[in-house]
Amino acid sequence: MLKIDAGSAVPVYEQLKRQIKLGIVSGKYPSGYKMPSIRQLASQLKINPNTIAKVYRQLETEKFIASKTGSGFFVKMEKEQMGSTRKILLAELADEFISKAIELGFTPDELIKTLSEKLERKSSNDKTE
Amino acid sequence: MLKIDAGSAVPVYEQLKRQIKLGIVSGKYPSGYKMPSIRQLASQLKINPNTIAKVYRQLETEKFIASKTGSGFFVKMEKEQMGSTRKILLAELADEFISKAIELGFTPDELIKTLSEKLERKSSNDKTE
Amino acid sequence: MLKIDAGSAVPVYEQLKRQIKLGIVSGKYPSGYKMPSIRQLASQLKINPNTIAKVYRQLETEKFIASKTGSGFFVKMEKEQMGSTRKILLAELADEFISKAIELGFTPDELIKTLSEKLERKSSNDKTE
Amino acid sequence: MLKIDAGSAVPVYEQLKRQIKLGIVSGKYPSGYKMPSIRQLASQLKINPNTIAKVYRQLETEKFIASKTGSGFFVKMEKEQMGSTRKILLAELADEFISKAIELGFTPDELIKTLSEKLERKSSNDKTE
DNA sequence: GTGGTCTAGACCACC
DNA sequence: GTGGTCTAGACCACA
Asked: How close, in Å, is residue B57 to chain A by CA atoms?
């Protein structure tokens, strides 16, 4: 399920964190779900166990999962929070995009227009691929 | 004019590069404009000259400025290029935003909707500030 | 493999860049090949790590290699690109030669003639050396 | 007559030196010709007198001109040397081109072919411009 | 004075 | 261990 793109410029731990977060907020990993063990996931993805541990620890701080010593990590996120978490993730990305674009002197209309065009082009490309 | 936030997670050289790019693309630094010397800017911003040199060299490879040994760095970007450069910069930002959001499982409609809402909220905030 | 002539007028980082480019374009360093680490190469060639880092970063912007923080630099150039890259490099050299010669008032015929003579002389020298 | 391209990456003193050398070997500045004074040339070209002085001093070392204290610099090159000097200038450029290209693994045939093609293309462009 | 190259060595994030 | 950023300061070429 989880995949790592070793060639990407995005750090491995960031890729993992994003995918797990998405899995949780989308319901694929429901509350109480037992996450794969650090060692197992490390050998499966062929990355360093320390990296997995770091990801789990950060997800724990962000209240997505909880550790039970001796038995593993478990999803903790409640359904009620999920909708808002998804929105928060997107809001963060949008804020980042907006602030950078405004800094370059673009108007809101230009942002909307550019984004719409790119998404249209993308969807038509996806069909033909 | 130029400001550095030493505490920011964004590297100093990135902060500088963005500000200078914006200055050039917005016309504040017209073609032929002599950039502040490495040493002068370094002492003004209280950062190491090598950091400024790195920024200038990168802006040079990106064709924004040109160096003349012994006399300084000069803005090279022509007015004709500015429009297209502005568009390219925006397109890069939009691509980054889209790819991250799609990766997290969001639909194009959600992107447009979130962006529009944020921009509306922002413009009304700007008025009251 | 890599050698530096400290006494040369050509900057150290230029010497290195050329050799590595040649190694990549000639296939000696295939795509995916892990370049020596900055520190290791620095100690081997007895030059400062920053100089190596500068070379690698420039090769990165020229799309020859890619960095993965924490694990090293890797050759990125695909075989399909190699032929065209080789041609581009030669074209740049030729353009430089032509523009300088024309600027000095030489005719195209003189360029061809001089080049041919030199190459013939060189090949006969190579045989006797 | 003499022109400086301030925007060029080629150092000002190099541009000047080349043009003067060319003027001498082409006969435009015959033996005995009095070169413009340092101050006059500096103000005419709007560059630093030190730069002119440096050029004259180097041309003196290379036996193109000679200084008479109190009266200026004079062309010294004899007609008999001129033909060979022109050839030397071109030979230097050709050697530079060849050595760089060989270093990149190109064959003599490729050099000749690329150069010929570029010169043909150039001459047809010149006609239509 | 200007930029260009290089050294020495620090601290950080990532694996 | 790896690369990424930054500082401090040297020496050189160019104007």
From this structure: 21
